């Protein structure tokens, strides 16, 4: 099913979050093609007969603030939301019930489709210490594609169905050459989360959304057979910081030097040695001076392809995308690989100046302008398998 009508109509998607609801002036969002309102909890769709669909804004309210024709979607799930999906995926009946409720929600809200943010099926999610990858892998490896199939069947062939998927190879447990063909048949496109590529599980510094690691993540999906037109590259409109080990070798090279322990080795809990904040957030007081230094003295790493700064006094490693870094990344990945589009987390996070949105929008315009004449690509109809008898599960195609 994965394809786009033309390279001249590349997807440009924004997540709109309840934490940062600000939407800029119409001229600043004129190129945006898709908006995903985030999030609706997955457990809601396991209930017997949900009667309301809680969101911080209605689809109609959001739609009115974007150009006519912009697709407004509902994002279901999120980083720490795994249990609702895991429960829904277990049997043919639970999958169909979940899918039926997704369809009911889309009909009730008037959304154009859904984005499934079961981000780490098979493990490596927020709860990976409490529910190990070994416990999850076998059943979720088989059931995740089946859940998507049932959602696609319930929605029909014209609603949009996308999925947020990991950007690090170590997290792509459910996304392999064996499973991706079945997953792809249900989806319009993948939103590859090429950010948070450094997180609290790491013990050395690296760019959280740099070119080298982002390209490796995209290549993983291409190698597994996902067509480039079916992939959106992710951009992060926020800053990340990490505490480094005073004896970790950062003086010689701040990239690849040792960090302090950032998560509890037993529970996986955050130990407060790293963090993130959006451009629309107030910089934490204890970090404000260090961040001002980072903004003044930060530099671009020509090797890894990311903007960074290491504060030798505070032992803090800073990593984020500047507008200039966005301008470099776009041709090196999106254009080079012929991807179907881009997305960012998230629109309001870039307020109040929206400098990163402006930079990304300019690159989208350039990308579309490279192909002024539509390049028609065959768009196969989505596969809608006939539901089997309720007493039997779908046949395992993997």
UniProtKB/TrEMBL annotation:
Record-linked Pfam families: Glyco_hydro_18 (PF00704)
UniProt keyword Hydrolase present: yes
Keywords (A to Z) from UniProt: Hydrolase
GO biological process terms on file: carbohydrate metabolic process; chitin catabolic process
The keyword Metal-binding appears for this protein: no
InterPro entries: Chitinase_II/V-like_cat, GH, Glyco_hydro18_cat, Glycosyl_Hydrlase_18
Top-level lineage group: Eukaryota
GO CC terms of this entry: extracellular region
Gene3D superfamilies given in the database record: Glycosidases
Region (Disordered): 379-398
Ranges annotated as biased composition (Acidic residues): 380-391
Enzyme Commission number(s): 3.2.1.14
GO molecular function, one term: endochitinase activity
UniProt domain GH18: residue ranges: 10-367
PANTHER family: CHITINASE
Protein name listed in UniProt: chitinase
Organism: Hyaloscypha hepaticicola
Organism lineage string: Eukaryota, Fungi, Dikarya, Ascomycota, Pezizomycotina
């Amino acid at each position: 099913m994965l394809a786009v009508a033309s390279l001249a109509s590349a997807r440009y998607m924004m997540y709109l979050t309840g934490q940062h609801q600000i939407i800029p002036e119409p001229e600043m969002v004129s190129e945006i093609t898709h908006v995903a309102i985030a999030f609706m909890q997955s457990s809601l769709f396991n209930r017997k007969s949900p009667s309301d669909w809680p969101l911080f804004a209605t689809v109609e309210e959001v739609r009115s603030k974007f150009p006519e024709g912009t697709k407004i979607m509902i994002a279901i799930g999120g980083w720490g939301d795994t249990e609702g999906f895991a429960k829904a995926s277990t049997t043919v009946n639970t999958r169909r019930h979940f899918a039926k409720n997704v369809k009911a929600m889309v009909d009730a809200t008037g959304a154009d489709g859904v984005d499934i943010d079961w981000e780490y099926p098979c493990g490596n999610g927020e709860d990976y210490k409490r529910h190990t990858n070994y416990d999850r892998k076998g059943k979720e490896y088989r059931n995740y594609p089946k859940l998507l199939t049932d959602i696609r069947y319930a929605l029909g062939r014209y609603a949009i169905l996308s999925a947020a998927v990991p950007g690090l190879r170590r997290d792509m447990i459910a996304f392999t050459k064996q499973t991706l063909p079945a997953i792809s048949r249900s989806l319009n496109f993948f939103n590859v989360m090429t950010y948070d590529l450094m997180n609290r599980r790491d013990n050395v510094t690296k760019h959280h959304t740099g070119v080298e690691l982002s390209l490796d993540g995209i290549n993983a999906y291409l190698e597994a057979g996902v067509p480039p037109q079916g992939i959106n590259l992710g951009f992060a409109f926020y800053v990340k910081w990490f505490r480094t080990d005073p004896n970790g070798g950062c003086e010689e090279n701040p990239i690849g030097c040792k960090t302090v322990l950032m998560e509890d080795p037993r529970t996986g809990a955050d130990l407060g040695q790293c963090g993130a904040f959006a451009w629309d957030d107030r910089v934490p007081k204890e970090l404000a001076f260090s961040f001002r230094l980072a903004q003044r003295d930060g530099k671009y790493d020509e090797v890894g392809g990311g903007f960074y700064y290491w504060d030798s006094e505070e032992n803090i490693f800073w990593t984020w995308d500047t507008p200039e870094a966005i301008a470099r990344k776009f041709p090196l990945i999106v254009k080079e690989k012929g991807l179907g589009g881009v997305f960012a987390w998230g629109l309001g996070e870039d307020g109040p100046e929206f400098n990163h949105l402006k930079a990304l929008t300019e690159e989208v315009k350039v990308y579309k302008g490279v192909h002024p004449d539509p390049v028609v690509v065959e768009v196969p109809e989505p596969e809608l398998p006939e539901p089997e008898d309720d007493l039997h599960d779908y046949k395992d195609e993997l």
